[in-house]
Write a structure and sequence with these properties.
- By secondary structure, the chain is an alpha+beta fold.
- About 30% of the residues lie in helices and about 20% in strands.
- α7 packs across α8 and α7 packs across α9.
- The longest helix has 19 residues.
Length: about 425
């Protein structure tokens, strides 16, 4: 009995996705709920589970194809079992051994003779292992020339991540090189001698065209829509980070010992924004048609770097969370972003965004609003600059803050007031404790 594998529901308002990678090949045994393919949607990567035990018999779509929710992408034979698949492999092995002894088996038109050379077989086995990895991990394996079977995976279900590959390469002292694509399996003829690649002429100009991922296309579309719809404006301020850095230095060890997580700067800024939004509620509001929606909760989207681009998971009800709660949630989202396991629900519904470009070295920027939100706070790198304090020029660790906002809803006075409230809370963290 053949069972259809359908594209599962991908989340609210998402009707289609792109088949990013097949995780199982035709003829391989699968068990119920085992991932057999991965789909790339506008926001996240989703794994397609097997609906039953059996053997994957057909793949009805190819990698890169766009598929709608509910579409049939593969079929599974429930009557076949892993034992049957194993028996088929053993039969194939026996046939290969006979061929090696001098008997050449008859081939169908769609078959090729097995390769008997040990080196070729080993190379093919390695290539088969590489093809089961995600595209980002596979590219890293080929660039760093490492053996993925010798690396311990830290991702979901023990899978390799790109960071695992890079860490293994650094441990071996390997340097990244040009990615070497796996070669197609050869027929029974002896493996050809390796060809020497022609040297690149000095000054030669090259171009590479890469299809935009669905995530990148969606980001580009949404950001352009934000520019076309909102009356965006950015206002700036700077903040002395001395007090926060001193508090973090004094309490970071005790904090980590008690809560099991490091105390970072982001929790201070989340709490400061919650405090400032109480005085300037329009920053946490949005425009829907001809109405303004004000909220008494603060769901903050935190921009996180992922292998496929920037994602913004949401910390919900931040106004009711402690510093430890916020830091734990940020760490959880950071890990999920690297593994590509963030869900659609975790990335929708934010009311305000904080983006920290400082981790990449940014000094100043004008962040773009994430619709339907009305404001986004941009953090930047901390650097010592001369400032005047009590008539004296002193060096202080300073950070520029940028607030981009929708001028249709937020006036300039309100935007400046919000930034000043954030500045005051960061420069005097006691305000966060006494709600001032």
């Amino acid at each position: 009995m053949a069972t259809d594998v359908q594209v599962p529901a991908l989340g609210e308002s998402i009707t289609e996705g792109t088949l990013a990678q097949w995780l199982k090949k035709p003829g391989e045994a699968v068990v119920e709920d085992e991932p057999i393919a991965s789909l790339e949607t506008d926001k996240v990567t989703v794994e397609v589970p097997s609906p039953s035990n059996g053997v994957l018999t057909e793949q009805l779509v190819q990698e890169g194809d766009t598929v709608a929710v509910g579409a049939v992408i593969a079929r599974i034979d429930e009557k076949a079992t892993a034992g049957a698949a194993s028996a088929a492999k053993e039969a194939a092995t026996a046939t290969t051994n006979q061929a090696g002894a001098g008997e050449t088996p008859a081939l169908r038109g769609d078959e090729v003779a097995p390769v008997a050379e040990p080196e070729v077989a080993q190379r093919e086995a390695e290539e088969d292992h590489i093809t089961t990895l995600s595209p980002a991990v596979r590219r890293a394996v080929l660039e760093y020339h490492v053996d993925p079977s010798q690396i311990h995976g830290t991702g979901k279900d023990g899978r390799l991540t790109k960071d695992d590959v890079i860490a293994a390469a650094q441990a071996k002292g390997a340097e990244p090189g040009p990615a070497i694509a796996p070669q197609a399996k050869a027929p029974s003829a002896p493996a050809p001698a390796p060809q020497v690649k022609a040297p690149v002429a000095a000054g030669e100009r090259r171009e590479e065209r890469v299809r935009m991922s669905r995530l990148r296309r969606t980001v580009a579309k949404r950001l352009k829509e934000a520019q076309n719809t909102a009356a965006m404006l950015t206002t700036f301020n700077d903040v002395d980070m001395s007090a926060v850095m001193d508090a973090r230095s004094r309490y970071k060890d005790l904090f980590e010992k008690k809560h099991g997580i490091r105390l970072g700067f982001m929790s201070f800024f989340v709490k400061a924004c919650v405090l400032a939004a109480r005085d300037v509620p329009s920053v946490n509001a949005s425009i829907e048609g001809e109405e303004i929606v004000y909220r008494d909760y603060f769901d903050v989207s935190i921009a996180v770097s992922a292998p496929k681009g920037l994602v913004v998971p949401v910390i919900r009800n931040a106004q009711a969370m402690s510093f430890a709660d916020i830091e734990n949630k940020i760490a959880e989202y950071g890990k999920k972003a690297k593994e590509g396991s963030l869900t659609v629900d975790e990335m929708t519904g934010g009311t305000f965004t904080i983006s920290n470009g400082g981790v990449f070295g940014s000094l100043l920027s004008t962040p773009i609003i994430n619709p339907p939100q009305s404001a986004v706070l941009g953090m930047h790198r901390i650097e010592e600059r001369p400032v005047v304090v009590d008539g004296q020029i002193v060096a202080r660790p300073m950070m520029y803050l940028a607030l981009s906002y929708d001028h249709r809803l937020i006036d300039g006075r309100e935007a400046v007031t919000f930034l000043v409230r954030v500045k005051e809370a960061i420069e005097d963290p006691t305000r966060l404790l006494i709600d001032l």
